[in-house]
Amino acid sequence: MKKYCYALFLSIVVFTQISAEKKPDNKQYRAEVFSIADGDTITVLVKGQKLKIRLHGIDTLEVHNNKKAKEQKILLKKKTVTEVMEWGKKAKQMTAGLIPAGTIVYLELDKKKVDKYKRVLAYVFLEDGKMLNELLLQEGLALPYEKTIKSLKYSEILIKAWQKAVFEEKGIWKK
Fold this sequence. Notes:
By secondary structure, the chain is of the alpha+beta class. The chain is built from 5 helices and 7 strands; from the N terminus they run αββββααββαβα.
C-alpha cells in the first residue's frame, strides 16, 4: 500500500511539474532531452526538473551483461550475450541519434504513469510527430513489452511496427 501511495504521489508531482508545459493539443507535454541511459530510458528536463522516462510499451536489449541480457539471449536465440549487448548499444545509438541532449520532445502518458523503478512511462514524440517507441520497433531494435502491450493506448501501432520488423527481418530479427 505504501509503495502504491508513493507511485500515486509521484505521478501527481509529475503532472504538476509538466502541466504548464503542454503542447497545444493538450495530450502531450513538452520536455528537453537531458541524457540517454539506453535505448528505452532517457532523462528529460521539465521546468528545470529532471525526470527519468521509460519508453512505454517497448523493451530494448540490454547494454550490460546481466541476468536480463542472458534471458534475452535465450529468448531471441542469439549466440552470445555480447551479441545481445551489441543490439542494445545500437538501440541506444538510434535513440541518441534521433533525440540528442538538448532536443525538444513531447511526452504522452497512458493509464499507467510510473513503473516499479519510479520512472515515468511515456510515449516519446519527436518534433515531426513521429513516435520514438514505434521507430525503435520498426527498425528491429526493440521488443514489445509483453506484460502490458495489449492494454496500451497505442498497442495496435506498436504491434504492427514490431510485426513489420519481424517480417522484414530487420535488426534483432535478422536470420
